[in-house]
Amino acid sequence: MxxxxxxxxxxxxxxxxLGLAWPLSSRMTxxxxxxxxxxxxxxxxxxxxTLGVASGDPVPYGVAxxxxxxxxxxxxxxxxxxxxxxxxxxxxxxxxRRRVARGTAAATAALGHSVxxxxxxxxxxxxxxxxxxxxxxxxxxxRTRTAPVGPVRRVRFxxxxxxxxxxxxxxxxxxxAREELDFVVHLGDYVYEHGQVGGNPLxxxxxxxxxxxxxxxxxxxxxxxxxxxxxxxxxHPWFITWDDHEVVNDYSGTxxxxxxxxxxxxxxxxxxxxxxxxxxxxxxxxRQRRWGDLLDLSILDLRQYRSAQNLPDGTIxxxxxxxWLKDQVTGAGEAWHCWVNSIMLSQLAKxxxxxxxxxxxxxxxxxxxxxxxxxxxxxxxEDLVVITGDWHSAFVDDIRPDFADxxxxxxxxxxxxxxxxxxxxxxxxNATNGPKMGAANPHLKYFEGDRYGYDVYEVTPRRWSTHMxxxxxxxxxxxxxxxxxxxxxxRGRPGSYEDRATISSPAQYRRR
Length: 512
Ligand SMILES: [Fe+2]
Prior knowledge:
Blueprint: H1 5-14, H2 18-21, H3 30-39, E1 53-59, E2 62-68, E3 83-91, E4 99-108, E5 114-119, E6 127-134, E7 137-138, E8 142-145, E9 155-160, H4 171-178, E10 183-186, E11 196-197, E12 200-201, H5 213-223, H6 227-235, E13 237-240, H7 256-272, E14 287-291, E15 295-299, H8 319-330, E16 336-341, H9 366-379, E17 384-388, E18 394-399, E19 412-416, H10 427-440, E20 444-448, E21 453-459, E22 463-471, E23 481-490, E24 497-498, E25 509-510
Parallel strand pairs: 1-13, 9-10, 10-13, 15-16, 16-17, 17-19
Antiparallel strand pairs: 1-2, 2-5, 3-4, 3-6, 6-7, 6-8, 9-21, 11-12, 14-15, 18-19, 18-20, 20-25, 21-22, 22-23, 23-24
InterPro entries: Metallo-depent_PP-like, PhoD-like_MPP, PhoD-like_sf, PhoD_N, Phospholipid_Metab_Enz, TAT_signal
GO molecular function, one term: alkaline phosphatase activity
Domain PhoD-like phosphatase metallophosphatase: 157-467
């Protein structure tokens, strides 16, 4: 491998020369930005479909298709007419001989020439292929799938989170692209509004343009220059939520200063995600999706409606979403119930006492967490599994309505996944603090912070299995993927257990 973007950027940061290496630097012309991106290994699909294709939000009779025309991804303004007609087609076969749907959509400059096509009239539980046409060119072919209805014996899906471009290559997404999956879930920190490379903040070299829509667009475009990310989108339909870095670190609320920036960031996110047509600057993310009678997903938005943290009456969900989530719990049927949760739900008390490690997560919203989890316990909901990102390390936790009370019943399991590339703590920090976090948190069963990757969930009526897939080295785009360990939850038996075959795998903490 001749190019390694992590070491290249770290070297430039150490030399005080990030402005010469970081493609989004305000000091660069477009030609220099393109050159800098290429030096970091950026590649693009053939124009105008440089950013690839994607599908998302599969339901039984439809799915959303996405692309964005960006002939010059590093330009602030694309060299395109104000409105460009984009053709789309869906077929049952990769050769498009059995075409089942087709149409056109207008890609407009107002929405960055993105298109979001809500395809309907498809068959449940079926695989499809799709592609786009525009300006005499045809896009790559994407593969997608609709949700099944009725009895389902197995679902396999993956989650990804935290993919700082400057921290490494997306070998994890290459792994996801190769997996046999029904769908993918993204748990947030899809892009980072800034970066920290070798201790130097990239933002200092960029100027204020990161606050604006064109600058957020360029950031998304740069992230999609990693071919493994485009491959993972083209291989499977995705459900997507977000965390803070799609806008700015640890944000909450809507102060006037934040409002304009948030709107720009939300719109750029919308323009680059395979979601249904929506209001670009206030998209509705939270929703319930079903995979037959086997799995109910409650996809949460823990950013858009939250108050500030550490308030007695603070909210992470917002009143409407909280009422909605409680309704999902009350009305839950026999399926596994999974919360797609960007940021850690379980308590993480500081070793040695004195509060919590981070109160940007649910630990900053104690009353609401207790209210919602007490509702879960009282409703008799069984088989709650929460899947989480954000932490850049893997955790497995028992969920209790009152984490401070060991007599409080176990009502579910939280799996927090490794990051795709975003930097974790050092091996020294993990070795020292893993056991301390375990001692301070009786519900914590497992911690591993030295690796990068993604989780694969394999769910049957009787058992939920979480396979922690890890890559060898995020500096290598072709780094091989292996399974670090597997945890199971048996239906009707609260709590998880580790697979015997991998119980001796490396970790910094295990409750024995
Ligand atoms: Fe992150």
